Amino acid sequence: MFNFLASILGKLMRFIYDSLNQSFAEPTNISFYAISIIIMTLLVSLMIIPMTISQQKQAERTAIFKPKMAEIEKKYGYDQQIMQQKMQELYKEEGVTPGLSGCLVMIVQVLVLFGLFRMMNDTTKYVFPEGLDNIRTNFLWVPNLIERDPYWFGLPLLTSLSQFAVQLFSMKTNPQMQQAGGAMGNMNTMFLFMPLIYFFVFRGLPAGLPLYYTLSSVFRLIIMVIMHFYMRSNKTELKNEKVNYKDSKN
After folding, report:
1. CB pairs under 8 A, 24+ apart, for 217-220?
2. The pTM is what?
3. Among residues 10, 34, 108, 119, which one has the fewest Cβ atoms lying within 10 Å of its Cβ?
4. What pLDDT digit, counting tens, does each position of 40-87 carry?
5. Do 53 and 227 form a contact (C-beta atoms < 8 A)?
């Protein structure tokens, strides 16, 4: 499967690279190889926009019935299992699917990341079968994106910080993730530690991977922030969606 993804990503990247090479003069500090990764990241981010929007929309809808969640926590806080069961019943009643959109976004990200890893480990097979003799792969301070970033405070750190910002924003705007107890609390702790794990993992991987993941996280965060303020200013729309969902059930 990853070979298939690497092949598709390789063809897409080669198309972008050839288009740039035929139309523009290659900058000194940023190679067409790096620009191709940036454009490819933007395309993947555009592809998952519907899932990101759905995730943020569900978070904003959940905020509307946050008082009901607080009431359940107060009433059933003595038993985490009963409280989680009542929360699930509330989500179902309000037409919210906890975590589904976020999981889909994460799955897509992981699949693309593994495909890119396979592609960058064998660039001559998937992108440049004629060889890399005349191909520049530098990006600002990184001399070769096919090799690891020589600086620990470079792309690996940017990846960790950008992903931490995404997770923190999600937790601050999603009442489901603000529950401190039970399985949700453990999951929140894991989410906050994941960016730190990313830092150590990406330090030893081709620098093109943290470049992709950093940009992907930044694009996703921008979309989430825009959706947050847009949905906050259109609470009536959210309430109407909730009413329509209940009417469809009846």
Report:
1. 217/159, 217/162, 217/163, 217/165, 217/166, 218/162, 219/41, 219/42, 219/45, 220/45, 220/48, 220/52, 220/105, 220/166
2. 0.74
3. 108
4. 999 888 887 777 777 767 776 776 767 777 788 788 877 778 887 887
5. yes
